[in-house]
Amino acid sequence: MKIAVCIKQVPGTTAVEVDPVTGTLKRDGVESKLNPCDLYALETGLRLKESCNAHLTAVTMGPPQAESILREAFMMGVDEAILVSDRKFGGSDVLSTSYTLAQALECSGPFDLIICGRQTTDGDTAQVGSELAELLQIPHAANITEIHSVEDSSISATTLLPGSLMKITMELPALIAVDESIAEPRLPSYKLKLATADRSIKVLSLEDFADKDETHYGQSGSPTRVVRVFPPEHDIIQERWEGTADENASKLADFLENNKFLQIAR
């Protein structure tokens, strides 16, 4: 069985500049980390690798610096890593990103199962998994909280619906997006770090895809546009009060009442 886990490198800080022209985040040189939700996808893939003797591949789309999260995936136990990187992919919205990943998976597969995290912390759309599955024309399910069994031709799992849980069975190949409750992610292994230090990472660009039409990728292939992006305003006012505990408690009570945070019965 061949399993692919889609992961993403996201900003590790909120202090990220926004390109005023394109409305996209300036990722080059920004402190980054592995998307937290993707840790659960990786753990799910690793557990299936151990129970099903599967071959596990981590796939990410991003600039060359995104190689670092693939190295982290090696340290957790994946067998192979693919970096989808080309300047022509820059500025992709969720649909263009999904199409690019679909092209990458098609030329690297076939895969029996594709696993995604619920969403990313930089976009929060939770759409790439389902769009990717639709482009690959395979069944898919989101909010997977438990996997019961994986057979040669099917997967049985539980999905979280509003107010209820539902057990489902899908034919393979399929795609699942996992919920954070599915498993506790393991820590990277220093032993695996040493063992995989020289392991190569496969890099795919537009020239490797079946569809080489540049207008289908990046901003050209993105039907949505960001009109305006701006950081939240910080208007924190700080005061320092000197006095006894009783005096400061009285000041605090008056402040909360005067600003209508609470009503004090007197």
Strand content: 15-25%
Q: Output the helix-strand order.
A: EEEHEHEHEHEEEEHEH
The major sheet is characterized as: 9 strands, mixed
- Could you give the count of β-strands? 11
Return residue spans where pLDDT drops below 50 for at least 5 consecutive residues: none
| Helix and strand composition category | alpha/beta
What is the general shape? globular
Distance between the termini: 71 Å
Average pLDDT rating: 89
State the helicity in percent bands: 25-40%
Q: Largest beta sheet: what is the strand line-up? A: 9-8-7-10-6-1-4-5-11
Secondary structure elements and their pairing?
Elements: E1 2-7, E2 9-11, E3 32-34, H1 36-52, E4 55-61, H2 67-76, E5 80-84, H3 94-108, E6 113-116, H4 128-136, E7 140-150, E8 154-161, E9 164-171, E10 174-178, H5 190-195, E11 202-204, H6 245-258
Parallel strand pairs: 1-4, 1-6, 4-5, 5-11, 6-10, 7-10
Antiparallel strand pairs: 2-3, 7-8, 8-9
Structure characterization notes:
With 266 residues, this protein is of the alpha/beta class. Helix content is 27%, strand content 24%. It has six helices and eleven strands. It has helices spanning 36-52, 67-76, 94-108, 128-136, 190-195, 245-258; strands at residues 2-7, 9-11, 32-34, 55-61, 80-84, 113-116, 140-150, 154-161, 164-171, 174-178, 202-204. The strands form two sheets. A nine-stranded mixed beta sheet has the order 9-8-7-10-6-1-4-5-11, with helices on both faces. A two-stranded antiparallel sheet has the order 2-3. A hairpin with a 3-residue loop joins strand 7 and strand 8. The longest helix is centred in the N-terminal third of the chain and has 17 residues, at 36-52. The protein is globular, with a radius of gyration of 23 Å. The model has no long low-confidence stretch (mean pLDDT 89).
